[in-house]
Write a structure and sequence with these properties.
Elements: H1 2-43, H2 54-71, H3 79-100
Amino acid sequence: MENLENDKYARAKKRVDELKGFYIHLSIYVVINTFVLVNIYVQTDNFWQWPHFLTLFGWGIGLAFHAAKVFGVNPFLGKDWEEKQIQKYIDKDKEDINKFL
């Protein structure tokens, strides 16, 4: 029984550490990119240029992937897709077995 409680605690701690890591990543993203964009705004006359937002965009993609991993969101290969693929292979195996019976 104590082993089960330890496993539950370890899983909960891992989940909290993942969330904490994401929120730290998000905070650093906001602080650094705010600093970069403010500096660019102060230093240049023409702020609205694509290269000025390249870091923001590239890092934002990485942050989005991090969020998808932490919060379990996968629009391309989500749970529904997994279930459909599993069912497809189960059905295929049943058909193959029925061929030989």
